[in-house]
Amino acid sequence: MCTPTVIWVVDDDASVRSGLSSLLRSLDYEVVTFESGAELLAAVARARPACIISDVQMPGMSGVDMFARLVDATQPIPTLFITAYPMPELRQRALALGANAFLIKPVSVADLTTALHAALSH
């Protein structure tokens, strides 16, 4: 029996978390969701996902700031960003920190799964 691949999703919008969770579960991934970067950072001390899918703009701490803290504190975790606000400076910063993808909402299922498979195989 194989251990399921665990994907963490962080987004302050409950409907986005729910939609991504449903999609990822339909692709046979196990999903853990967080509504803030701070929640995810607290959890990474106890567990480690195969990949993170994060919103960029969130109250309190942006997804890119959360990712910068992860990069400083742990071994790299493949990370995909999804945003409705594709600011070039945030995209550049995220990719410079080592993010695997910076996708723009609404993201197609094909683009998301392609980016996810690439991140997991890296």
UniProtKB/TrEMBL annotation:
Keywords: Phosphoprotein. InterPro entries: Bact_response_regulator, CheY-like_superfamily, Sig_transdc_resp-reg_receiver. The modification 4-aspartylphosphate is found at residue 55. It holds the Pfam family Response_reg. It comes from the Bacteria. SMART domains: REC. Gene3D superfamilies: 3.40.50.2300. Residues 6-120 form the Response regulatory domain. PROSITE patterns: RESPONSE_REGULATORY. This is Response regulator receiver domain-containing protein. It comes from Paraburkholderia tropica.
